[in-house]
């Protein structure tokens, strides 16, 4: 009898502890954090139990996605981050909101943003992501690892993006682009009119091209061999998007729900394809090669001492570069094409520059790129207005000071890039206009603050692929402009930028192209 009472007491205690824990997470912690920020003059929308502000965010985003913008409008911040726009006008530029029970403070001051992103003491770490999103690139890949693991991976991976490697990659970029342009030419020759024109959905074309480039240049495979990885990643991405504005309950990712079964299946499929690519490299080359995959495999096969990378880490790095390497670049090329279709004067200026520096057909080499100053300015302006990343986030790993603000441990700091990139106090009264000349004296002098453009981020975690992207974008745009003219956006084009992990056109980008005389 005593034993039964004892066990019942234990059970009651455990239940009591769970209830207490839930009370702390759902009620007490939000109350304390809200008060701590309020004492510093920071407020925001009211915390609602369990959901925080997620229901409002979902509603505002749903409404904003119903509308489309005028194609000449670059004011995309209210469409993509409608909740930030509303709350900034109500509570000021720095405000507190709740992603479920997770406090988030939005900070758009470039000096504070730089301090957060450049912090080398580990006070601000990558913020937690939903498990589905983490699976896209892997928890053991460069994007999500921290501390000594990150240092080790970054050191191994940096040589894959050295100047010498980029030169070799340029040849691959040229070949892949030529393949795409050859297909366009064949379509042109089917046209019978004197002024043949072709219609292309450019977002799809660029997704395919950038996938081909990364698969060939980093993995020595090709679009065809890498296609299963891309397909699984795109499907997985589709599974992630609806969950982004839902409350995450830890543990639910292990439940045997239909959605989890689908996610697990896609993850297995993706890894199976990656393993096939790895196996074929291991069998075919004794020194594994010098591209990204070769560098990763050498880190696995280190003789004597311990392995520098496990096979699981290599697979996650492959996922990272398959995903990071094509999605963002495809969007950059898509939005730049849209801008050049709308701004024919700039398209002509770029063509003139290209003809002057590279002629009409000459194959590009890495030396030519430094001469394409106007092209550089146009790409920077495109990254400012339509950069693929809408916001960056970091979590305070300890309670810390940021400027005059005390940030409690566990708070996520969000830096809304879209807002900063269109801020008139930073960029001047024409901040919403396409004006590449603002970059004439370099990126750091284009605005009132040297770090006003954070498209590639700054500090130790800045984009490892930024030189690769710039070379790829210049190669592709140069080769297209040498051979084709973007005549106009098609009538059916709807200007609807949307954030599906990266900013892309909700309904694609149909463009009319005209081949130039040989
Ligand atoms: C227009 C194209 C691109 C843009 C705007 C871009 C932007 C960014 C940004 C903002 C970050 C920092 C994220 C954060 O701190 O939370 C980042 C990180 C990263 N990017 Fe890119 N990226 C682009 C293309 C690429 C490409 C082509 C690759 C690979 C070939 C790549 C690989 C990575 C990786 C691995 C990281 C994580 C770096 C680390 O944490 O050490 N990115 N990128």
Count of individual helical segments: 19
Unreliable residue stretches = none
Biggest sheet strand order reads 1-2-8-5-3
* Fraction in beta strands: 5-15%
Overall helicity: 55-70%
Bound molecules: protoporphyrin IX containing FE
Task: Report the average pLDDT across residues.
Answer: 92
The geometry reads as globular
Cα(first) to Cα(last) distance is 97 Å
Number of separate structural domains? 1
SSE arrangement:
Layout: H1 2-38, H2 54-66, H3 77-80, H4 82-91, E1 95-99, E2 102-106, H5 110-118, E3 124-126, H6 131-137, H7 147-157, H8 163-190, E4 198-201, H9 202-219, H10 223-243, H11 258-284, H12 292-300, H13 311-342, H14 344-358, H15 366-369, H16 373-386, E5 392-396, E6 400-402, E7 405-407, E8 412-415, H17 417-421, H18 424-427, H19 466-483, E9 484-489, E10 497-500, E11 502-505, E12 510-515
Parallel strand pairs: 2-8
Antiparallel strand pairs: 1-2, 3-5, 4-12, 5-8, 6-7, 9-12, 10-11
The structure holds protoporphyrin IX containing FE.
Give a description of the structure.
By secondary structure, the chain is of the alpha+beta class. It has a single domain, classed as Cytochrome p450 (Orthogonal Bundle). Helix content is 55%, strand content 10%. It has helices at residues 2-38, 54-66, 77-80, 82-91, 110-118, 131-137, 147-157, 163-190, 202-219, 223-243, 258-284, 292-300, 311-342, 344-358, 366-369, 373-386, 417-421, 424-427, 466-483; strands at residues 95-99, 102-106, 124-126, 198-201, 392-396, 400-402, 405-407, 412-415, 484-489, 497-500, 502-505, 510-515. It has a five-stranded mixed beta sheet with strand order 1-2-8-5-3. Strand 1 and strand 2 form a beta hairpin. It is globular and about 95 Å long. The termini are far apart. Protoporphyrin IX containing FE binds next to helix 13 and helix 19.
């Amino acid at each position: 009898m005593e034993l039964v009472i004892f066990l019942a007491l234990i059970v009651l205690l455990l239940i009591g502890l769970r209830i207490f824990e839930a009370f702390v997470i759902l009620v007490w912690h939000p109350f304390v954090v809200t008060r701590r920020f309020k004492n510093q003059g920071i407020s925001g929308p009211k915390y609602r139990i369990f959901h925080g502000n997620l229901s409002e965010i979902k509603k505002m985003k749903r409404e904003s996605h119903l509308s489309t913008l005028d194609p000449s409008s670059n004011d995309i911040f209210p469409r993509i981050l409608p909740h930030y726009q509303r709350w900034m006008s109500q509570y000021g530029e720095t405000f507190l909101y709740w992603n479920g029970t997770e406090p988030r403070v939005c900070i758009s001051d470039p000096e504070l943003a730089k301090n957060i992103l450049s912090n080398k003491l580990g006070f601000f770490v990558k913020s937690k992501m939903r498990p589905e999103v983490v699976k896209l690139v892997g928890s053991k890949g460069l994007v999500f690892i921290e501390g000594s693991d990150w240092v080790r991976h970054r050191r191994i991976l940096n040589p894959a993006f050295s100047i010498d490697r980029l030169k070799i990659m340029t040849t691959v970029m040229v070949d892949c682009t030529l393949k795409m342009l050859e297909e366009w030419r064949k379509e042109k020759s089917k046209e019978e009119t004197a002024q043949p024109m072709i219609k292309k959905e450019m977002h799809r074309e660029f997704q395919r091209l950038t996938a081909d480039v990364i698969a060939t240049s980093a993995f020595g495979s090709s679009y065809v061999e890498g296609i299963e990885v891309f397909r699984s990643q795109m499907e997985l991405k589709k599974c992630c998007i609806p969950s982004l504005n839902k409350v995450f309950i830890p543990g639910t990712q292990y439940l045997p729900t239909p959605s989890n079964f689908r996610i697990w299946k896609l993850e297995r499929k993706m890894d199976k394809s990656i393993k096939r690519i790895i196996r074929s490299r291991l069998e075919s080359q004794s020194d594994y090669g010098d591209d990204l995959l070769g560098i990763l495999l050498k880190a696995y096969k280190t003789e004597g001492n311990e392995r520098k990378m496990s096979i699981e880490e290599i697979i996650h790095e492959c996922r990272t570069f398959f995903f990071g390497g094509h999605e963002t670049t495809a969007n950059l090329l898509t939005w730049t094409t849209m801008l050049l279709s709308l701004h024919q004067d700039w398209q002509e200026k770029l063509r003139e520059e290209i003809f002057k520096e590279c002629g009409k057909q000459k194959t590009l080499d890495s030396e030519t790129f430094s001469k394409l100053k106007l092209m550089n300015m146009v790409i920077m302006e495109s990254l400012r207005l339509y950069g693929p990343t809408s916001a960056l986030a970091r979590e305070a790993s300890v309670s810390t000071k940021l400027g005059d603000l005390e940030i409690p441990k566990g708070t996520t700091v969000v830096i809304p890039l879209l807002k900063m990139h269109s801020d008139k106090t930073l960029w001047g009264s024409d901040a919403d206009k396409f004006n590449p000349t603002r970059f004439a004296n370099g990126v750091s002098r284009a605005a009132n603050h040297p770090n006003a453009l954070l498209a590639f981020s700054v500090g130790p975690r800045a984009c490892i692929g930024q030189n690769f992207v710039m070379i790829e974008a210049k190669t592709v745009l140069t080769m297209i402009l040498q051979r084709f003219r973007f005549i106009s956006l098609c009538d059916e084009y709807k200007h609807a930028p949307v954030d599906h992990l990266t900013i892309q056109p909700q309904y694609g980008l149909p463009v009319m192209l005209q081949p130039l005389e040989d």
